[in-house]
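quick one if you have a minute, typing this from the bus. below you get a single protein, a line of residues and a line of whole numbers that encode the local backbone shape. could you go over both lines and see whether the tokens make sense for that sequence. anything you notice is useful, everything is just below.
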Amino acid sequence: MFGRSLYVLTTRSVTKSAIPMGRQGTFLALNNLNTISNSSNNKLAMVNNYSTQAPKFTMTEKKIEEVVTPKRATSPHLTIYKFPMPAVMSIFHRATGIALGLGVAAVCGISLFAPHDPTYYIELFKTQYPFLVIPAKFIVSYPILYHFSTGVRHLVWDETCKGITTKQVEKTGMMILAITGAVAVVLSFMN
């Protein structure tokens, strides 16, 4: 209904003596609604069945320099508020998903464009930096375990609609953090 009335206003009801701005007569039609609706050939009243009065507003054009934005202080929202544990875990779930995606893309890029296979570079890393092997295994295994565990928890929530109260979410979150941390440490020390 609005599209048709705007079409009627912009194409048929605008007088030729006015200066159009923007599209052909769009702003002009909004500025001159009172004169259009009071004319003898009242097409606006035929299209608009909801009201008998024309809207009382005008549009003006301003330059960007004329617009004044207030200088208000912004709230230090990230520095003074403590995120609840479910929010931190949700953010970390997204971050691990992004990191895992980038890691897979890097391994694929190495497989496609590097002169050797990824296994060659892993063995080279083991021989050049043997003291960094355990931390590197943890850095790789923990995001995989964490993202998988929290993803399974979300699937359980979606399918059963159980365990979504604040206490239960915090309890399962602590369990996920403890289990994934322990399993990642064990995997880090395995050959």
Remarks:
- Residues 2-47 form one domain.
- Residues 31 and 58 are 5 Å apart (CA to CA).
- The two ends are 70 Å apart (CA to CA).
- The chain has nine helices and no strands.
